[in-house]
User: What shape does this take?
Amino acid sequence: MASIEILPADPTYPAPLWALVTESEAAPPTLYLRGALPSRPGVAIVGTRAASDEALRFTRELAASLGEAGFSIWSGGARGVDAAAHEGALAARAPTVVVSGGGHAHPYPREHAALFDRVVAAGGALLARVPDDTPPLPGLFLQRNAVLAALTLATVVVEAGIESGARSAAAAARRLGRHLCVVPHAPWSPRGVGCALELASGARPITRAADVIDVLGGPAPPPRRRARRSLRNSSPAAGTLPLPDAAFAPRASVSPEKTVQIPVMSAAERVVLDALDAHPAHVDEVCERTGLPPRHAVEALLTLTLQAVVVEGPAGLFRRALR
Assistant: This one.
């Protein structure tokens, strides 16, 4: 089945994509569609491909609950969190959209071809910004994430490492002025470092569908009908991730007029802080200045960011908080 081509001049073209126009790009991308785009407002759910079992259970439950509350569920069709989001929507009989990184003639990953067929058969859609015969390429996935963020009201990051592609979707949502929600995660877990950094940068923490709906200004979801297989016996509790108490503590705010209080630090944290100044530095540069292995430098930067002593900027750059 060939995709339908949707040009920016077409009356059916999604208006939010005009927000992607930059000085170097005079028009938003042409779209290639299989199926039908839902009329329901959309929520994007993204995360790591190497997701934990708890994150996958949480994602399915979150997508199903948001679907039952009247939202369409959008994701990138990848392994891990993306696939769980589509599956949760399908279980709730809610429309879901796969925004692909390549053309529809090259489903990626290949083992998800059957899942993509189910999405279309259930009334959802496959959407790409490249023709059907275009193979998936790394740069296309970053462009895909911008489309995903632009066409939804909010982006939810469930689980993400420091270099997870989900963080590019989060950056696009922030840049486009969309709501950005993040599930708090244990910061000492490599799968949770990206989530902790996004929260430190101002993302809204959420632990259930009602939190997302509250961010969007809507009513609480209706009572659940347990038509889907119950997750009651899963561990931890169904639909939740194991969250440390610190995840719910208020984050310190920093303003240029106020002095930052320096907390007690480990030796690595002190070395990293001493290596930073008001000029942003990349993680690689921090490693060169300190001689620390990348993992130790990242852990120190994360802790200092959560303590509001260090500020993370775009593209993984860090600087000292103004004092």
